[in-house]
């Protein structure tokens, strides 16, 4: 079964792993993966989780993203998942070459074209829940 089955009626603190793919813009896409922020909740109380991070490095750049998941959606096995949908922050279409790496983005540079991506996915397994009666 993997992780222990929590007593969801007690709204235990937990987090979720997630993984998603962005749409294709400017001929490339990005992967995102990470862990949501912890939240107390059950599989039926419609709680949400905050998530944030940076995308995979593709085409010479990455994007920052953050969002709040959709409400808990119960699964048949008694656990739950959340849907994710957000838009990344902008990055330049033509990345700036930086000697030691990194990404520079200045929203005041109006003449440099930028783009962003939409991401959509769902959380995966619940992480950090304790055994029943613990």
TrEMBL record:
UniProt-listed InterPro entries: YmaF (IPR024307)
Positions of the UniProt region annotated as Disordered: 111-134
Highest taxon in the source lineage: Bacteria
This protein's name: YmaF-like protein
Source organism (scientific name): Bacillus amyloliquefaciens
Native organism taxonomy: Bacteria, Bacillati, Bacillota, Bacilli, Bacillales
